[in-house]
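== Polypeptide entry ==
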Amino acid sequence: MKPLRIVIIGSGLGGLAAGIRLVSEGYQVTILEKNTLPGGCLRTKEINGFRFNYGAEVITAPFLFDQLFEQAGKNRHDYFDLLPFEPVFQVIFPGEKRFAFFSDPQKTLQWNNLFSQEEERALLSYFQANEEIFNDVFFDYCSKPIQDSQLRSFFPFLPQKLQNQKSSLQVAEAYYKTPELQLVFGFWPLLAGGDPRESGSLFRIIPSIFSHWGASIPVGGMKRVLNSLLSVFLEQGGEILYNSEVQEIQIFNRTVSGVRLIDGSIYHADIVISDVDALTTFRFLIDSDKNKYSSVSQAKTKNPGISVFSYHLGLDCTLEEKISLAGCNFIFPNHFDAFLSDLFHRKTLSSDPFFLLKIPAKTDLYAAPHGFEALSVVIPVPNLASDISWERESYLFRTHVLELIQDYFVTDLRKHILFEDYSDPVRMWTENRSYLGAAFSAMPSSAKKNDHRFPNRCKDIRNLYLVGAGTHPGPSIPGVLMGAANAVSQIKADFS
């Protein structure tokens, strides 16, 4: 039997992970990448000895990488190693109240002074309740390919303690009395583009993921991970073509037949996998008969999620800190609710935003040259559906961000900047093809809707599969790796 020909659109984590699994099974796989380099949201920029990641860089559930390499007959340790770090992150509140989150709940209790005896019991109760649903959510829901009908029927079978009719923030408020603890354990949906006041409580398992596997960074940065995945894919016989932007997924009789590039060339395929944002895939890549597909109609009804603004600085000195900072610091504004309303409802840039301040050298000694320092700031911002003109606002916003982070350092940052770089919603769209620059594809559903991300197998276009943050089970490195495995398992079942 002639091997099936598979085309994968995009070389992000989902595309490479699916490609490795498929070539290891004997399929003929070609990845088409629109840019000159692979990586998608995993891309890394290196400038004069500084190294900045433009996407996820913290790895948890490392066994998912181990499984991927084992599928190819490889040992992940031969390609890259992981370096655990603690605390996983620090939260800084107005008035310089701080909270350090450790993977071990007992250590979190030990190192923080926000806990009364009542709040200590609340924390342990919170984690115990999470453990009761963890296997159901992580292994039965996330790690299995589930179609629309199964997705709708999944939730009634979860333990009642999931409280799936409550938002993530409402669940935290039910456990904790201290406002700061309510925010710490309720803000999780924001890391996937959702409003903590509205998004469902499935996000509450994120702390349990850390408690199960901790947090690590790859030695050599995400670039090392990306190069390792690419090497394994090519070693197994896969093919990758750069500067190959797909304009259209070709479909005949509701079955994919290949893709057409913007230069007019056609690649025939028995199977097409899109690692492009799911909203972009259905809105722009389906051929001229798109109106007859319910998946396209569904994509048009979904709201794209928020975007992010990333700002990176290379400094010619080490920095003196006003308060002790961790590698990852979540900074809460004076009025978090007002910030969320600006972001999700008014769709404006907040003057007092929530943001992540990263100091890469705290966890990676080689993120900056010796004696120098690197800083990265990531801020949730509205997507391109807003009235924000990023051509004008980008510089002004960078200046404001610099003022915000200066409050945490004695060193005058402006006097020591060697270079700066940034990414805004426009770049998210042009470089990653994320619809309207949404960083995490569609908006996470509200607690009352139980809506879900797109299944990994298209429900009404045969032989079309999807991977990446916009598909089941969702964003994050574990989510994308599980989604790629789900898609491949469905391909194997469909073509066995």
Q: What stands out?
A: Residues 31 and 240 are 5 Å apart (CA to CA). The longest strand covers residues 307-315.
